[in-house]
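Whether sequence alone determines local backbone shape is best considered at the level of individual chains. When preparing material for the folding task, we compiled for one chain both its residues and its backbone structure tokens. No coordinates are needed to read the tokens, only the vocabulary itself. For completeness, the protein is quoted in full, as a sequence line and a line of structure tokens:
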Amino acid sequence: MTKRDIDNIRSTLTRRGALGLSAATLLAVNASRTGFAQAASVDSGFSKDGQVGFPSIVRSNEASEGNAEGPLPANERVGFAVVALGRLSVEQILPAFGQAKKSRLAALVSGSRDKLTVLGRQYGVRPEALLGYDELERLREIEDVKVVYVVLPNSMHKEYVLRSAAIGKHVLCEKPMATNSEDARAMIDACSTAGVKLMIAYRCRYQPHHLEVIRRAQSGDLGPVKLIDSINGQNQGDPEQWRLRRAMAGGGSLPDVGIYCLNAARAITGEEPVEIEARINSPAGDPRFREVEESVAWILRFPSGAMANLSSSYGIHRASRLAVHLDGGNLLLDNAYLYKGQRLTVRHAIEGRETETLVEVPAKDHFALELDHMAECVLTGRQPNTPGEEGLRDMNLMEAIYRSADQRTVVRMD
């Protein structure tokens, strides 16, 4: 600061003092403007091990709202190639990279050159990393692409997982894993032979509300799980969409939205079902259900004695709920399988009075969490929490559900 700056401040103090402002206040204001004020250490923070952090500014009896883990530098994040630019990719997956901390978008693969041009410009993807489906193997030469995210219709998962594994890329594959268990096994074998990781995109298994439900159910604090009740459904529209074609989807509401209920029940109990009984209904004359089912309801019995009453539908107003009934209380998750809006409440008795408590859980982007989990597995060499084997288990169970409904009998699982 020059002598002229100091003289200007003193002149201002003299001129404005009559307005009732203290000299200290005026000095602080002007000091801030001229840049010589020093921030307290609690405000300026610290830099350590490549991260910038801040000490808490609240007293020890209040919880900090800080997020201690910052994002990795761009050049250290794991690069992903997203294959197929349909609704899920454009509206959910691509925007999620903006919330991710360990992953980044490095390439796009599509059959539409227009989509590649528009989205490549929007997300800053290099022109040489904008590829057609027949050019997938060119990803071999793009070294910063470590993971291929397959977001194609279900029947195409196997081909693109096998092609990605053959060029040495790790694979994140959308659910359901395939249209049948035989293809799922082939996908697992191909990735194992190639020495690459295979993760199935069960986004809810990384979502904070679901993780809290699993933690509380398995903690024993409310006693053992007795019953699980869950529904996931929506009113499907255009009968020409691929999700209503058996050859492309493998089924109707069950593999698309019912799989969320199935996977959640398995995750909550930590067990595999030993018995399945199911029923299917499709209204006659509805062009949407010429090839696939509308509604499915099924019961699972687990080794512990816990049972799950689950259902899915393509013909109802949107419903998405998960309830876990335990010996000592209930865990209720509203909007359970939607992209946002989850609300978790706990009902139990406290000092003899029935109480319902809203559990505060931070909302985070499901897809960003999923992407970052895969990235972490690549960076550390660990196995994904939802590997190919997890997808195969659900494929086996969905085949058993269809078998039970078709034969109108209880199916016992090995």
